[in-house]
Structure formats: structure tokens, C-alpha cells
Amino acid sequence: MTASVAAATREAYEHWAPLYPPEPHNPLMRAEQRVMLEHCPAAARRSVLDLGCGTGRYAQIFAKRGAADVVAMDFCMPMLGRVRGAHRVCAGMMHLPFAARSFDIVVSGLAVGHAPDLQAWAYEVARVLREGGTLLYSDFHPDAARVQLTRSFSDEQQRTWTVPHHTHDLRSQVSALRAAGLKVAATHEVRVGRELREPFENSESFYARWDGLALVLIVRADK
Fold it and tell me: CA 133, CA 4: separation in Å to the nearest integer?
């Protein structure tokens, strides 16, 4: 991402960090996590990178599932400082500070949209994956971006922030993964009224307006 977009993204997450728990804290994140775990590879005795980890919800899950080693990486120090139960590394996702073939699993929850160059991101992930390894990630769906839905939050002073996001359509994602030597094993769209059905404040009008809209794209690719 450009320097200005990167700075805006980091600033938003710095303000979000105090309010961002290491578990899914809204209905969409709970739906996203349920589907992610449906496609999750076995973790026991494997090495895992939680890429763009935030406060480490996936790092925590893989640690509990018996991973031999879990690394949580994020470029926002206030987010990273809240991670527990994993080795913490502060770095950006476009240049991973790890040797080739370091991990059996790379997991990334709702962070791929921070990659300005999807092909370069895919090559970096493929580089640090071992043969037989798995990439599992979620991203905000391009269809949600097209109708101008955003990822926004209110900070401790009740100021509203919108997190910058690059939109990558599914064709571009599949193409980037294949070019990096990864085989797409599964894709899954989290849709309003399907995977996302949990009631929340004013949810009746939300579900009526956006019924069937894809909000999150989940992809599993193997090396």
C-alpha cells in the first residue's frame, strides 16, 4: 500500500486496538470464523503464521489446537501487544521477515484487503509455506465493496473511523494464487441471511435490505 494509505490504516487500527478483543466480537466475525474453521487444516504439531493477526484470535485458536509453533505477525504494535500465546513479530505483510519454507499453515483473517499488490502478497506467502502447506484466509467480499459497505468502528472517544481497504475480485485472487504456485482447494462466500443469520440491533432491516449479499470471501489454497 502507498505510504499514505499505510499510515491511515495503521492509525485506524491503533485507535481500534483498545476495543478489539482476541475473539470474534460481532455477528459477521462470528460467521466468518465458523466458516474459516470448517476449512481449517489439522494444526497438531504444525507451525503456523497468523498473518495480519490483529489481537491474535486465530493464533489463539491454533495454539489451542496443538500447533507446535505459532507466530502472530501484524504491523500495528498496539494490536500486536494484546496477543497472547504466540511469538509476536511486528512487520508488514508485503515483505515477510521469515526464511523460505518456514510454516505449514498461513492463516489470515480479514486482512488481505490491506495488500496493495495481491500478486506480490501471494508470492510472499507461497515462499514461506512448506510443500504440502496450506494458506487459509478471509477477505471482505468485492460485492460488499461495490455497494459501498465499509469496515467502520467508533473509538473510545466515540469518533468514527473507516479502515482503508483494497478490493480484490475473486478472479484476481485465484489468478494470483495460481501464479504463486498455490492450488485453490476451496472458496466460500459468507452471505447475508445464509451464513450470517444472527440477530442484532436493527438486524431485521439489514437482513431485508441485503438478503443474499456476499460480505466475506474465504479461500483455502494448498502448496
Answer: 34
